Amino acid sequence: MKVLVDTNIILDVFLKREPFYKDSIIIFQLTNSGSIKGYLAAVSMTNIFYLLRKAKIGTADVYQIMDKLAVLFTVATISESTIANALALRWKDFEDAVQYISVKENEVDYIITRNADDFQTSDIPCMSPADFITLLKEKE
Question: In angstroms, what CA-CA distances link 21 with 3, 49, 94, 130?
């Protein structure tokens, strides 16, 4: 099962944001164990780096985090057609549109986010980490 892990979930883990940390770290664990194949959009990698630095995490530490993310998750590439298709969506949040198109090109099954409203017209099911964990338990 392939899932896009949205930027906010990554930040929940590395910034230990409560009350979201507990469920978000489970998504990492599921990816690490191979139970799911986690994807990050390439645009998310640059945004995560920026936001972690903005949170006053040192550059060397942020690079270590980015190295871990690049190993743990598959980075969905962004091409010229990805950008063109994302622009055509005219979504309010362009980053989300780029993420959506990039993972659509990779045939991802779910989008894991705390901002499902940002993906309202997505034909890929969007859910919070808690809802995704519940879904997996129901499928067992």
Answer: 18, 18, 26, 11
Strands in 126-127's sheet, in edge-to-edge order, are 74-76, 37-41, 2-5, 110-112, 126-127
Give the pLDDT band of residue 139 (cuts 50, 70, 90): confident
> Taking the model in full, what pTM does it have?
0.92
% of residues, the chain, pLDDT over 70: 100
Q: Is the pLDDT of residue 140 over 90?
A: no
Q: Are 11 and 17 in contact (CB under 8 A)?
A: yes
Tokens encoding 20: 């979201």
Per the CB < 8 A criterion, the answer to whether 2 and 109 are in contact is: yes
Nearest to 11 by CA among 2, 3, 20: 20
> From CA 61, how far away is CA 29, in angstroms rounded?
21
Task: Write the DSSP string, 2-47.
Answer: EEEE-HHHHHHHHTT-TTTHHHHHHHHHHHHHTSSEEEEEHHHHHH
